[in-house]
Specification:
Helix content is 70%, strand content 0%. With 130 residues, the protein is an all-alpha fold. It has one domain (8-112): de novo design (two linked rop proteins), CATH 1.20.1440.60.
Amino acid sequence: MARYEHLPIYRSAMQLAVHLENTVRGFPRYVKYTLGSEMRQCSQRIVALVIQANSERDKHGALLDLRRAVEQLLAQARICQETNGFRTFAAFCATVELAGQVARQNEGWLKASGVRGAPELSVNGSTGVR
């Protein structure tokens, strides 16, 4: 199995997961056990997908799954913000920024893998097919 601890995307994904573990702890009870739980699971899946992509020879499928997982997490964070789940706006901003770091690094990894025909996805969620 390939080593992954040195990867910047792995460190960013772990930072996101730890941030969400600590942030969800302060959510109101209903949000903690609904959206908070889903966000925690999604962040853990993101870490797992980084590890999976690093260990596979053909990384394209895992990187596209990683892209979808980050977008799902961002959508959940937006819903959580709209329903006043985050205690502070700063916690929401930190979540979006950390997820954005993972998304940018994932896009770079996709480009570096040399796969042609994969639509690019910006951090705000729109596809930029060239």
